[in-house]
């Protein structure tokens, strides 16, 4: 599973894991959070902008691009850590959707009473992930997040 469903610069096989890693998750919580985010905005994207085929095309392409950016960052920083999850693909979809309707109001389910514009969300996500790269936070694959978000935008 780790060989083909996780993304690592140290891996002998680079291409297939770039595709398959977006369908693998560390835990059920990881999978659940990612799928909740997709569920919360996918209907708007599919019904108003993309349609089902383009939605999946953007998802898969965004996931592969975010994996490529992640691998590039790992090669530059000489990191052999593995990455997996759908976050890069999801952020590509979120970036696209937020740019189509930048005035939309978004909320974080765990922070009641706080909302913000879709445009502010993209700026905040990018700033968070840039800070994560600069300060070498390791909880998330910040390079993949930036790659996915920028691809969607």
TrEMBL record:
| Domain Peptidase S54 rhomboid intervals | 18-153
Q: Where does the UniProt annotation locate this protein?
A: Membrane
Catalyses which reaction(s): Cleaves type-1 transmembrane domains using a catalytic dyad composed of serine and histidine that are contributed by different transmembrane domains
Q: Known InterPro entries for this protein?
A: Peptidase_S54_rhomboid_dom, Rhomboid-like_sf, Rhomboid_protease_S54
Protein name as it appears in the record: rhomboid protease
Q: Which GO terms describe its molecular function?
A: serine-type endopeptidase activity
Q: What EC designation does it have?
A: 3.4.21.105
Q: What is its main location?
A: membrane
State the UniProt keywords alphabetically: Hydrolase, Membrane, Transmembrane, Transmembrane helix
- Single Gene Ontology BP annotation: signal peptide processing
Taxonomically, the superkingdom here is Eukaryota
Q: Which organism is it from?
A: Haemonchus placei
**Family per similarity comment:** Belongs to the peptidase S54 family.
Decide whether keyword Transmembrane is in the record.
yes
Q: Which residues cross the membrane?
A: 55-71, 83-102, 114-135
Its membrane topology, per UniProt?
Answer: Multi-pass membrane protein
Q: Which GO terms describe its cellular component?
A: membrane
* A Pfam family annotated for this UniProt entry: Rhomboid
């Amino acid at each position: 599973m780790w060989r083909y469903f996780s993304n690592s610069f140290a891996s002998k096989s680079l291409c297939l894991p770039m595709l398959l890693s977006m369908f693998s998750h560390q835990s059920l919580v990881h999978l659940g959070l990612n799928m909740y985010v997709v569920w919360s905005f996918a209907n708007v994207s599919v019904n108003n902008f993309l349609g089902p085929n383009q939605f999946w095309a953007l998802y898969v392409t965004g996931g592969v691009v975010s994996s490529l950016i992640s691998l590039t960052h790992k090669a530059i920083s000489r990191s052999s850590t593995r990455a997996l999850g759908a976050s890069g693909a999801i952020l590509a979809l979120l970036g696209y959707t937020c740019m189509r309707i930048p005035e939309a109001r978004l909320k974080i389910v765990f922070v009641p009473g706080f909302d913000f514009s879709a445009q502010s969300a993209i700026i905040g996500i990018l700033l968070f992930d840039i800070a994560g790269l600069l300060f070498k936070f390791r909880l998330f694959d910040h390079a993949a997040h930036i790659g996915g978000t920028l691809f969607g935008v």
